[in-house]
Amino acid sequence: MAKVSLGSKTMTLPTPAWLVGSYDADGKPNVMTAAWGGICCSKPVCMYVSLQKPRYTYANIMERKAFTLNVASEADVAKVDYCGMVSGRDNDKFAVCGLTAVKSDLVDAPYVAECPLVVECRVLHIQDLGQHTMFVGEVFDVKVDEAAMKDGKPDPKAIKPIIYAPEDRHYYGLGADLGLGWSLGKEYK
Amino acid sequence: MAKVSLGSKTMTLPTPAWLVGSYDADGKPNVMTAAWGGICCSKPVCMYVSLQKPRYTYANIMERKAFTLNVASEADVAKVDYCGMVSGRDNDKFAVCGLTAVKSDLVDAPYVAECPLVVECRVLHIQDLGQHTMFVGEVFDVKVDEAAMKDGKPDPKAIKPIIYAPEDRHYYGLGADLGLGWSLGKEYK
Questions:
Q1: DSSP structural state of residue A161
Q2: DSSP label at A9?
Q3: What is the mean predicted confidence (pLDDT) over A137-156?
Q4: B179 chain-A contacts, CB cut-off 8 A
Q5: Are B121 and B66 in contact (CB under 8 A)?
Q6: CB-based contacts of A105: which residues, under 8 Å, 6+ apart?
Q7: What is the pLDDT of residue B97?
Q8: Helix H segments across A2-122?
Q9: What is the per-residue pLDDT for A184?
Q10: Which residues in chain B touch residue A35, judged by CB atoms under 8 angstroms apart?
Q11: CA of B86: which chain A residue's CA is closest?
């Protein structure tokens, strides 16, 4: 298949559209939307989010050394988009969106009550890469809505996470179940 | 909404299911499946993948200081699963899966011809986090199948990326288009 070169671009699929929760120096909660994030270690469990230095959340995480990564459900996609459009310096995004900041017992950051899946992190490493700084956090807890659990596990079809597509700049839902891992591949073994 | 605590787990949504392309010291191409990966900087454009030290690909990337991140299409989900089940030490995964290794002109790693979206990276930083080591690579090119381009941009609905759900351990396709970023959020501005 002939391929087109796009050059050095921030383009892959999927990327997330997470709400990053943090407190500022005065204890005001904020959320911002971020797509540059992921899991980066299984033991200790680590996740990261990359942020630009001018962002309000950047200063908050530098101050508090903690953040939450909140997976919103697709019904809240417009709220997620809004939280990436404006700064918490000038807006109380929780109030505008009708979202609830819950103080974590484990890390110095708020999580979003309305998000069916939330991850609570304390900063472990900070790596300045250029335009973005990568905050690697150790995961202290993952919390999931009771209604989104099935057979003792988080159910992706109930969580309905939002997927972001760079370049295209659209958000997408989760699609069809394609099958079980460590199982489908037996066809080739 | 009442939430259940799962503890410190590698759980979020979405995570990718990428094929990581590399050469070993003898020039033999290999692919392995990885879900701990993402975009981590916009300038220079950087992406990372996290790997465990015993992995064949870990030694390859340490040797060659380059890797590719290949986004397979959902029709190839069984091949993607297989490439996460066995080691390239004992298997020629390209041959078994009927996949084609293409030598990159830009980085010292092969990409997968059959993947509609491929990203070519040279290692910029290596961070040992514990069970996993994070390889941050600078992106030298993103290549997309001509047939998966639409209006000059990669079309996620044509690429049909695979999404992995930790804990649940199922693969999913991309779902419905939920709308355009920096646009839906105007409802709250």
A1: B
A2: -
A3: 98
A4: 77-78, 81, 170-171
A5: yes
A6: none
A7: 98
A8: 56-64, 77-82, 93-97
A9: 98
A10: 39
A11: A189
Measuring CA to CA, which residue among B52, B54, B66 is closest to residue B24? B66
User: Given CB atoms, is B184 within the 8 Å cutoff of chain A?
Assistant: yes
Q: In terms of Cα–Cα distance, which of B137, B116, B113, B168 is closest to B57?
A: B137
| Nearest-angstrom CA–CA distance, A91 and A93 | 6
Contact B29, B22 (CB under 8 A): yes
C-beta atoms of A47 and B12 within 8 A: yes
Q: Which residues, including other chains, have CB under 8 Å from residue A36's CB and lie 6 or more apart?
A: A10, A15, A49, A50, A51, A132, B38, B39, B40, B41, B42
Instruction: List strand residue ranges (DSSP E) for A15-169, in order.
Output: 15-16, 18-23, 29-34, 37-42, 45-52, 66-71, 101-103, 110-112, 117-128, 132-145, 149-150, 153-154, 163-165
Identify the residue whose tokens are 């961070």.
Answer: B127
The answer, yes or no, to whether residue B1 has pLDDT greater than 90, is no
Option in B6, B79, B146 nearest A144 (CB): B6
CA angle centred on B116, ends B113 and B122, rounded to 5°: 70
A29–chain B Cβ distance below 8 A for any pair: no
DSSP A3: E
**DSSP assignment, residue A94?**
H
Look-up of token digits 């999931």: A144
Please tell me if residue A159 touches chain B, with a CB cutoff of 8 Å: yes
ipTM score of the complex?
0.97
Name residue A63's amino acid: E
Tokens of B37: 């990966």
Q: How many CB atoms lie within 10 A of CB A186?
A: 11
Average pLDDT on B109-130 reads 98
Q: Is the pLDDT assigned to residue B175 strictly greater than 90? A: yes
Q: Which of A81, A119, A163 sits opposite B174 (nearest CB)?
A: A163
Please give the C-alpha separations between residue B87 and each of A44, A180, B31, B59, B83, in angstroms, as whole numbers: 24, 19, 9, 12, 8
Distance CA B133, CA B110 (A): 21
